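Hi both,

Apologies for the delay on this - the queue was longer than expected. I finally got the zinc ion-bound model through. Below you'll find the protein sequence and the ligand SMILES exactly as submitted, and right after that the structure tokens for the full complex including the ligand.
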Amino acid sequence: MSGILVFCRDCGKQVASSQTKEGRCLDCQVRQSVADLRDEHARLWRKRERYRSQNANVEQIGRQIARTEDRIAQRIKELVPNDRDAVDYLKRELEAARGQRYTIKGV
Ligand SMILES: [Zn+2]
């Protein structure tokens, strides 16, 4: 890759300046743009676990989770022009979102 290398002001990674926006690398741009949806996802996920433990109907919550994941995918697509890269980012964000419930459990 050509171009000037700069340090991302959030994570400190060295990246091509052409890939940064406001001093942030693409990773950080993606993470920031989906942060609110990830919180929403975590909230719904916890809700579903709670409902499930009460044997309540979780079908609707499952649909809401799927919709949130679609919105995450959409935002990533807007930021990441390369399709294959976008899929990688999506996978990473969803894994993080689905794993998030463990770190906030018990709060
Ligand atoms: Zn960064």
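Main takeaway for now: The mean pLDDT is 89.

I'll put the files on the shared drive as well.

H.
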